[in-house]
Specification:
The chain has about 280 residues and is mostly helical. It has a domain of about 170 residues: Orthogonal Bundle (Cytochrome p450), CATH 1.10.630.10. It contains 7 helices and 8 strands. α3 packs across α5, α3 packs across α7 and α4 crosses α7. It is globular, with a radius of gyration of 22 Å. The termini are far apart.
Amino acid sequence: MAFSVGRLRSTFEEFDAFSDRLMKEHIAKKTVPSDGPDDDHTKDDFIDVLLRLQQDRSLDFEFTDDQLKAMIQDMFVAGIETSSVTSEWLMVELVRNPRVMRKAQEEVRRIVGPKGKVEMKDLSEMVYFKYVAKETMRLHPPAPFLLPRVTTKSVKLGGYDIPAKVQVLINAWAVQRDPSFWDQPEEFIPERFENSSIDFNSQDFQLIPFGFGRRRCPGLAFGIASVEYLITNLLYCFDWKLPNNGGLPKDMDMTEVYGITVHKKNPLHVVPMLYSP
């Protein structure tokens, strides 16, 4: 146990130093002369926004360096693992379902045109791709169990008596594959979301990869945008296929490994082929 605690402390110290470096780099880049509006040094990212808020004297609360670092660390710890797992599953389902891949690519390339890359403002127009993202997170919620809840009072639910002050885990994976809510729940069918009000922030509770209510994941918008921006650019810039020895798409290994997140046991291997608009 002493070794584990020491290793944990060392990891946190390294992470803290990394966060310090990030802050200093972003402060320093503001002193570098700009080469124009397309210069990466002039484009604000998440950390730039936080630094600007920290300097805002009109705020009615203190925003310390430690608080800023904590927010940076939250973004890395809570955002990167879940987004990367979801991105891999999304690509897996696209490669496994060539019809869906073609339809999503046609939409992305039609909307983007000859610009050369997807921009954030384009995402709102990509209606079919949003169905694909929803269906991926329905079948593959990054965290199969939502964060624990504790009952505030005794309650009867589904024929069960649940006492007060009991920790309850909600199985999002099971809810999102429940045949009572979903037709052909084990099949990847993005079109099921056409003419449907079901969304990540709806009150229907069939689709809850981010939780629900006031205590749902605060990174919902950030996580969805990160995945959509990455995958739509991959779909725009490249055509994708399995390696020559990769077998048929329908025979792909879909074995899952369980932990805090659920990821693919064997990493996805695909071949990109450059697309020229």
